[in-house]
Every structure is written in C-alpha cells, then in structure tokens.
Design goal:
By secondary structure, the chain is an alpha+beta fold. It is built from 5 helices and 8 strands; from the N terminus they run αβββααααβββββ. A 3-stranded antiparallel beta sheet has the order 1-2-8, covered by helices on one side. Strands 4-5-6 form a 3-stranded antiparallel beta sheet. A two-stranded antiparallel ribbon has the order 3-7. Strand 5 and strand 6 form a beta hairpin.
C-alpha cells in the first residue's frame, strides 16, 4: 500500500512540474512577442519616428513602420544609374498593389535584384540597404503608399525635419520612371529614374 501511495505522490509531483514548466514556456513566449504601444509621431526603437500602426492586424510580419531620423536621410540619390537599369522593369506585383503599404521592403529587394549597380551608395536602394542607423540595419526604401503616409502623418504635421524637396519611393512606374513626391504638398509624381532626389529609409517591426 505504501508503495502505491508513493507512486501516486510521484505522479502528482510530475504533473505539477509539467504544468509549471508549461507556464514558464508560455510566459517566455508571450514576453518575446510583446510589442510596445507606440503612437503616430512617437520615437521608434531606432530613434526614428512611427508613422504607421497596423491596428487592424493586416500584416503578419510587422505592427509598425518607422521613418529614419533626419540624420540618416540620404541626399541626392538616383533611382537607377545606367541605361540598362533605367529601362529595367522592377515589379513585385502588377498593378496598383505594387504601390501598397507593406511592399517597400519587397520593392527595394526587387531593385537590388536587377543588378549590382543598385547596391551603389549613389542609389536610393543601395543607400537604404547599407544604412546602419539607431543600432538597426533593416532599412529599406518606402513604397509609394508608405511614402505618402510619411508625408501625411509626419511631414504635413511638421514632424521629422523633412525638406520640401522630392523623395524617392521604391515603386516602379514604367521603364525609365518611378514614383516620387515633393514634401512641399500632397501630390505624387512619376519621375525619371535618373532624378537626383532624397531618400528617407524606413523599417518595419
């Protein structure tokens, strides 16, 4: 009888240990997935500025978009350098979806995949891809819609120390042209890829 009681006690202890271990695992997992409650205009973890919050959980891989601080902005950058690169079709998906929120990283990667010239620091993609700012290195060129949001949520509210000049997006328009916009007003343009404009990289987290 005593042996049977000892067996029951050991079984109960084993169950309690398993429950405790599971609780520790779940708590650790929960903490690792915790995301700070940022607001538009708040300073982000890389010292930049939050300009988009995915409060509807549209995206699985990020909750926020952060603009780089003005100190990490690229000046006088080209979208493409050579005649071949200017003519190249750089599309992630067809149609208006290529300009959408959430496609800046993919569009930047598509630019870099065209040729080694897009890694040149004189290009918007090369500058953003190589950028190390605020302890982060996961920067990319915003898509057209992401660039529009930066203007609407930051620049138009006089947040972020943006210039009134033109800024590049990573969104392809057609051969020789890509989307950009001046930050002096709310109008986007398709401009020549050999234009010499600024780039304000962003990151998603």
């Amino acid at each position: 009888m005593r042996a049977k009681k000892q067996s029951v006690v050991l079984w109960v202890i084993a169950i309690l240990f398993a429950v405790l271990a599971a609780g520790i695992f779940l708590a650790t997992r929960s903490n690792s997935q915790f995301v700070a409650n940022y607001q538009i205009g708040d300073q982000g973890p890389a010292g930049g500025i939050i300009f988009y919050i995915d409060d509807e959980s549209k995206f699985e891989n990020f909750d926020y978009l952060e603009s780089a601080p003005s100190s990490c902005e690229g000046k006088e950058k080209f979208w493409a350098l050579t005649a071949e690169d200017l003519a190249a079709a750089v599309k992630v998906v067809s149609g208006w979806e290529a300009d959408s929120i959430g496609l800046g990283q993919e569009s930047t990667n598509a630019m870099l995949d065209v040729s080694e010239n897009f890694y040149d620091s004189k290009t918007a993609s090369g500058f953003a891809d190589a950028l190390e700012c605020g302890g982060k290195s996961d920067w990319f060129v915003p898509s057209k819609s992401e660039l529009d949001l930066m203007y609407q949520n930051l620049a138009s509210q006089e947040i972020g120390e943006f210039s009134d000049g033109y800024y590049w997006s990573s969104s392809y328009y057609l051969a020789g042209r890509a989307w950009n916009r001046p930050f002096s007003d709310g109008v986007s343009f398709d401009g020549n890829k050999d234009g010499n404009f600024a780039v304000r990289p962003i990151r998603a987290f």
